[in-house]
Amino acid sequence: MNENATKDSESLGIEKQKTIRLVIIVFATLLLGSAGIYVVYQGTMGGGKGTLTVEPGKGKISLSLEKPIVDQINIGTSTASAQGNDIQFTEGKITDPTVSNQLRGLSPSQPTQFSGKNFINQNLGFFLTVLHPENWQVMHNPAGLQNPTIPVNTIYNQEGSHLNIGVGPIMPGMDIQMFVTQNIQQMIQSGVIQQIPTVSYDFPSQTAFAVFTNPMTMGQSYQKVIIDRARSRVFVASANYNQAMSSPKAIQDLINMIATFTLF
Prior knowledge:
With 264 residues, the chain is an alpha+beta fold. The protein has a single domain, classed as 3-Layer(aba) Sandwich (Protein Transport Mog1p, Chain A). 25% of the residues lie in helices and 30% in strands. It has helices spanning 2-32, 97-104, 176-190, 248-259; strands at 39-41, 51-54, 61-64, 77-82, 85-90, 118-121, 126-129, 137-140, 153-156, 162-169, 198-202, 207-213, 220-228, 233-240, 262-263. Strands 1-8-9-10-14-13-12-11 form an 8-stranded antiparallel β-sheet, with helices on both faces. A 3-stranded antiparallel β-sheet has the order 6-7-15. α1 packs across α3.
């Protein structure tokens, strides 16, 4: 019995280490990766428009999909600073169940469509702001639902700027700071990045926002990491642009997308 218990304990330890290595691979892959085989649609095709009526507390408000959702709801923000610039990023998850239920109750849409000035993935339960959807397209790879090394969604433009979004498992005892620290160490050791990122945390919502120079594009890279403890998973959003090709307007759009990436 003792021998069997020891073997079971060793096997469990090995599986935990595999999980740790897997989520580290997810983080590093989404940092720089933009290639893959995707089902591609025009981003603005049939994007979904209209108004949602929600009832937070005692009063009613209407959410217009033609405006950024984050500008119409009460959600906390934190500040990330890099190279003298401050970026306001939202806390990781909407806490108002009424708003969450309304977003989940939207009419089904393709995971390759914008909803006005928003991108909403109802299946995975996240949204973000897209200020100029006419300039961006969305790619979707269903394999990312099973393989966390593959982005589920990529939002990109013709200048080479892109936002990758992936999801993977998270160990029960791993918090946001532990997850990010281990991934940064692994990426530096493997040469994926060459400098320690500037990282800001919102600990109550288990959210991290990192900023650093991408050695491949020489532009800034941004990552937002959110642990969804209720479902034992972690979301990694990574925004990258090419310093020589990306316009200031596109860069601002990209930063806005990742800063507003939020679960519901």
